[in-house]
Amino acid sequence: MAFNFCEATFVFDKKERKSWPLIAPVQDHLDRVRAPRQSFKHDGRPSPRKFCEIRTHDYPQLGAENASKLCCRLLLFFLQGVAKIHTPAYIPRMKHLTTFRVIDAIARTGSIRGAADKLALTPSAVQRRLQSYEAEIGFDIFDRNPQGVDLNSAGELVIMHIRETFSETGKLTSRLADLAGMRRGEVRIGCSQALVPYFLPHHISEYQTTYPNVTFEVVVIEHRTAQSALANHAIDLAIVFGGAEVPEFKTLLGVHQRLAAVIGLNHPLANFEQLRLRQCYEHPVALPGVGFGSRAMVDAALQEKSYSRPPDVESNSFEYLKAHVIATSAVTFQIECGAPLPSIKDTNLTARLIDQRDVAPGTLWIGQLAGRSLSVTASRFAEQIGRDLSERYEHV
Questions:
Q1: Beta bridge pairs of residue 262
Q2: Which carries the bigger pLDDT value, residue 89 or residue 338?
Q3: Which residues are bridge partners to 216 per DSSP?
Q4: Which residues pair with 217 in a beta bridge?
């Protein structure tokens, strides 16, 4: 279909004094398929129907070249509107959940003002929403105090209902999008720190290359808090390293993870293909804090060893431990899926696996809340990472 952009038709919205494109050939096609004749704003909603037509040749001072550029830019806005209105997979932000989003934001931030800032609303608007909902159900759901607000017993029940509603709505939108052949939705992941530097970025980027309309939220959690995060509907999937103990949540997959020593590229230990734990302790050692899975593996392996000694540096941040190793000759430890092994091209670090005779493997778990079905989007992502882990590591 050919367009003469210099003579394209515009729509002038008398009410808002703004002009929006209505490209005549496209509109004629819409008329033929009995689509409603309307102009489109940048957000895809129809503007008021009172309009008059203005052609670019009415403004010769623009020149043909500038008029063509203007028409091309406005055509893009128009097509965005058509795509949103006429694509079945387009699901707008559901307005009937606005009050629920306000209450959830209050619960998460612990204050009216904090929720207002997060949602870009005024504190009075947030307060009115909350008071209206409390009046409707007949219960106060927050206890007010000088520091902010806290959920009371009724509020705990309400917030659980709200988050379950969000989860079910997410599943609905995901399934509706699949019907239209355009997968979209959000996947919320709670994971151990080990998966943040290499494993998850690789898999999320791969998934979004295929399904660009899917968004992700990644939260670092400890394996002990995974069950509560799933039960509160804060996350959809848990991917956590938990040693040998079986977690409380429903497990989808468990794979063994060996311990690896993380060192600088020019460290003397980089000349070995595999290391004994004693070799590592011939150098300064930087360990993660007590409570991390890799620290538990090291502590268990050091029992009754003559070379056992306190770490030279201890931190609850793996980012700091990596920076410390780069700047010094120290050695730190990480499970293998989070370590820069030779297959991963890290510019500053490398890693070598520790001999299993010295350190027994732990277990990386993928799981979800028991009794809850995942959205199509989350389920497919879980299958993707499950396949990769199954191919690379031994099953539990």
A1: 332, 351
A2: 338
A3: 187
A4: 188
**Closest Cα partner for 5 from 43, 62, 89, 50?**
62
Task: Yes or no: say if 366 and 382 are a contact pair by the CB < 8 Å rule.
Answer: yes
Kindly tell me the sign of the dihedral angle through the C-alpha atoms of 75, 76, 77, 78.
positive
**Cβ partners under 8 Å of residue 106, min gap 6:** 112, 114, 115, 126, 130, 142, 149
Mean pLDDT over 56-81 rounds to 54
Tokens, residue 10: 């515009």
- Count of Cβ atoms closer than 10 Å to residue 243 Cβ: 15
CA angle, residues 104, 151, 143, in degrees to nearest 5: 125
Rounded to two decimals, what is the model's pTM? 0.60
Residue 249: CB atoms within 10 Å: 22
Q: How confident is the model at residue 170 (pLDDT cuts 50, 70, 90)?
A: confident
Q: Tell which wins on pLDDT, 229 or 82.
A: 229
Residue 396 predicted with pLDDT over 50: yes
Closest CA to 7 of 82, 81, 59: 59
Q: pLDDT band at 282, cuts 50/70/90? A: very high
- CA–CA distance, 202 with 345 (Å, rounded to integer): 13
pLDDT value at residue 93? 56
Sheet holding 332-335, edge to edge: 274-275, 349-354, 259-264, 332-335
DSSP state of 289: P
Rounded to whole angstroms, how far apart are CA atoms 209 and 299?
41
Strand (E) positions, 6-82?
9-13, 18-21, 51-55
What the chain holds in terms of domains, given with CATH numbers, is: 5-86 (no CATH), 91-182 (1.10.10.10), 185-257+363-396 (3.40.190.10), 259-360 (3.40.190.290)
- In terms of pLDDT, which residue wins out, 176 or 151? 151
